[in-house]
Design goal:
The chain is an alpha/beta fold and about 150 residues long. The chain has one domain: Alpha-Beta Barrel (TIM Barrel), CATH 3.20.20.70. The strands form 3 sheets. It has a 3-stranded parallel sheet. The protein has a two-stranded antiparallel ribbon with strand order 1-2. A two-stranded parallel sheet has the order 6-7. Strand 3, helix 1 and strand 4 form a beta-alpha-beta unit. The N and C termini lie far apart (about 35 Å). This is thiazole synthase.
């Protein structure tokens, strides 16, 4: 499920997060494309190994609808479920718990947004959510600003 190629050697130019080693430092999103086919082609062309997935906006469980997994192979790419669209710590934690149940992901991207129109991170809510997620065994990458 982590999508990391087994042929990466320790001496290669790599970086590591949550015990996983990567060559590409580019992390790309799966949103904003015309359709899932275009998403898959764009990610392939990017060379990225990690893709963010807005859990609230993508189908991960309905086999009757197009699924991201059919176009972006989770055995090849590391999915980084994120909380895009969450405005409270409670919603963010709930969203990532549901993502873990759906796909088994522990490495996640946390973003808890403040009020529109600016949508800067709400750092107090982000800290609250991060604390809960860490207690639940998640490995958390945080979208944050420089000043809580």
């Amino acid at each position: 499920m982590d999508g990391i190629p087994s042929q990466i050697a320790a001496g290669d130019d790599t970086w590591e997060v949550a015990g996983r080693r990567f060559r590409s430092r580019l992390i790309v999103g799966t949103g904003r494309y015309k359709d899932l086919e275009e998403t898959g082609r764009a990610i392939e062309a990017s060379g990225a190994e990690i893709v963010t997935v807005a859990v609230r906006r993508v189908n991960l469980g309905d086999p009757k609808a197009p699924m991201l997994q059919d176009f972006v192979d989770p055995r090849r790419y590391t999915y980084l479920p994120n909380t895009a669209g969450c405005f409270t710590a409670h919603d963010a934690v709930r969203t990532l718990r549901l993502a873990r149940e759906a796909g088994g992901w522990n490495l996640v991207k946390l973003e808890v947004l403040g009020p529109p129109p600016f949508l800067y991170p709400d750092m107090r809510a982000t800290f609250e959510a991060a604390e809960a997620l860490l207690k639940d065994g998640f490995e958390v990458m945080v979208y944050c600003s420089d000043d809580p």
